[in-house]
Design a protein that fits this description.
By secondary structure, the protein is α/β, with parallel strands linked by helices. The chain is built from 5 helices and 5 strands, in the order E-H-E-H-E-H-E-H-E-H. It is globular.
Length: about 130
């Protein structure tokens, strides 16, 4: 499974990486501290096989936030179904409602996340 982690908090990224490692799945992980860096990386992928299967995405980031990232992802016309999980500190019900207007969004998790939550999401969406 190819996972892309897009979050501007290096501490959260460290914790998420450790949680993913403990999920006992075969994975590769790309980490980005900004949505614009992640979008640039996606644009450089030459084939659908190089694209992530799952993106863990923060909403509140400088430069390109999660909503802007999702819009840009939608406009890229990628030939692969990529599952996106929002991982945020936002408890705003409006953010949750807005997230599920995007068909790519599978889950909306509020930080801190648990090993169980993350494992279940990744295992559920594992490529066969």
């Amino acid at each position: 499974m190819k996972i892309m982690l897009v979050d501007d908090d290096p501490v959260f990224n460290f914790i998420a990486r450790k949680l993913i490692e403990s999920a006992k799945i075969d994975f590769s992980l790309e980490e980005y501290l900004d949505g614009s860096e992640a979008l640039e990386a996606l644009k450089k992928k030459e084939s659908p096989d190089q694209l992530p299967d799952h993106i863990l995405l923060d909403i509140n980031m400088p430069k390109v936030n999660g909503w802007q990232f999702l819009e840009a992802l939608r406009n890229m016309n990628i030939e692969k179904d990529i599952t996106v999980t929002i991982v945020t500190s936002s408890i705003d019900g409006e953010d949750r409602r807005k997230a599920f207007t995007y068909p790519e969004i599978d889950e909306f998790l509020i930080k801190p996340i648990s090993k169980t939550d993350l494992s279940e999401i990744l295992l559920k969406n594992r490529s066969v």
